[in-house]
Amino acid sequence: MSNISVFILSHKRYGYYIHGRSVHGHSDTNMEEMNLNLKREAENMCSQRGLQPNSDIQTFQISISGRVRTQFDRIHSNLTKNHGPSRFLQNSPTASEQSTKAYHTMNKFLSAFIDHAFKDMDYFVKDKLLLERCFRHIRGVAGQKNLASKTLIDERFLI
């Protein structure tokens, strides 16, 4: 029922996206309206939660272009331009206002990116290839066995 999406870059141009946009347009509501919204969802009387139409898929591995990363870095530098996150800087109104403006700018940029607002920085969604799935499975199994042997943890406890 929330309206929160998460954009994580674990590497320079690779990461994860969790699509958390509410299908009801807003998530700040009372219990009566929340129950009504859940009932509508259960009866398929509203759109699905997925990023794409007629889809419930909300989690993605992402690979972004250099242009998207450059714009992301430009906005992000406004958050850290004084050599650290704003919470470590002096608590002046100017620093706080600059930080708030930069967070707002980043939010608008990422929202617009997800909404396909930038034709020169657009994206597409594709299914993983069978080969990618096989390699991931093999790596996962081999990784668990390797971890179990190095740490002496029983394989059954590794998820």
Automatic annotation (TrEMBL):
Pfam families: Meckelin (PF09773)
InterPro entries to which the protein is assigned, alphabetical: Meckelin
PANTHER family with a match to the protein in the record: MECKELIN
GO biological process: cilium assembly
Name of the protein in its database record: Uncharacterized protein
Superkingdom classification of source: Eukaryota
GO cellular component labels: MKS complex
